[in-house]
Amino acid sequence: MNIALKRPGRSLAALAIVSTVVLAGCADDGGTDETTTDTTTATEAASDSEEGRGPITFAMGKNDTDKIIPIIEKWNAEHPDEEVTLSELAGEADAQRETLVQSLQAGNSDYDVMALDVIWTADFAANQWLAPLTGDLEVDTSDLLQSTVDSATYNGTLYALPQNTNGQLLFRNTEIIPEAPTNWAELEASCADIESDCLTLQLKQYEGLTVNTVGFMEGWGGSVLDDAGEVTVDSDEAKAGLQALVDAYENGTIASASTSATEEETNLAFVGGETAYAINWPYMFTNAEGETSEVTDNFEVQPLVGQDGVGVSTLGGYNNGININSENKLTALDFIQFIINEENQTSFAEASFPPVLASIYEDEALVEQFPYLPALKESLENAAPRPVSPFYTAISKAIQDNAYAALTAGKSVDDATADMKAAIEQASN
């Protein structure tokens, strides 16, 4: 494997250090598994010429590139004339986004394929930075979890291909709460007589608060935006969801420490046996099983609970978008389809990197190794993307500011949702 370091220019250095790793000829010889989608479709649909094919660069935040490097190695071994170069972006999401935006605004083709946080997809599509996956770039997504496809769709058009996903789970300490609740009322009732904290989740004023606020609103039948993009955050259903969250915090169902908790504080509280329930991402399962865990053999997971049954998780993960200025879009398309074939999606599951290929969640060997997979699949099937909008950053801030005030400063739910609506409409006009 040849490794080269490519340093960004002065203007990019302040945003991120981008290291480029050239991965060639490192995989074993042999055939590949059947892919989820036909990776020859783009070639046949276009022409028999080599136009649209050649080496490409794939940009991704460095925190997760360990999962993609083996896949790039396999691709490069099989496609020596269409080699993929990995460009590692900064680990911090905002720095990744700024690096990509600066390049795209300049009309550059530095990055042919970009691993986009799901909340960026609509923004990048609205700015016409992504090639629509239509016509010669059309792809079959029928084998993917529908919620992940929805997260990559803007105004009815698919602009990226889901790579991996993430959904929240409800973790329960079975020594404290033996029976699983089937709805929110049962969860609250189960906490009535316990001495430990009941439920810990992320309500600190950051993106985690947006995730959980939107989840409660959706779990009570509401939404932040409707399908037409109209602001509905002040609907009766959305208000009911936020009211349930505020009431649970005030009555002690939700631990008081939650308003200063991120995922890691939640993890420490549950793994340390300090809370009966926790809402967190699947990575916590491995920690809860660990040798130093206080709940090693005494916990279970299930989908979130809502007003009437299974609740609504918001989605995490990456969508892979193709740069509108890429000269090798056909190679880019084949590569992002290669990432979601059965073999590669299985490798994601084995690395606790939730896959988007639905069949992986029914693999008996994987389920035995990762018992949370069935619960995660149900969570993802009931999940909702965070508001799909090019103004997502402003939407998230409006939700955070007002939900936090409702939780900690006595702001009424009516006022909080009215102010959310006003701020969101101002940002989008």
Automatic annotation (TrEMBL):
Transmembrane segments: none
Endpoints of the signal sequence: 1-24
GO biological process, one term: maltose transport
Keywords for the protein's UniProt record, in alphabetical order: Signal, Transport
A GO CC term assigned to this protein in UniProt: ATP-binding cassette (ABC) transporter complex, substrate-binding subunit-containing
Composition bias type Low complexity, residue spans: 37-46
GO molecular function, one term: maltose binding
Top-rank taxon: Bacteria
InterPro entries to which the protein is assigned, alphabetical: SBP (IPR006059)
Pfam hit, one: SBP_bac_8
UniProt-annotated stretches for the region Disordered: 27-58
UniProt similarity note: Belongs to the bacterial solute-binding protein 1 family.
Record protein name field: ABC transporter substrate-binding protein
Lineage, highest ranks first: Bacteria, Bacillati, Actinomycetota, Actinomycetes, Mycobacteriales
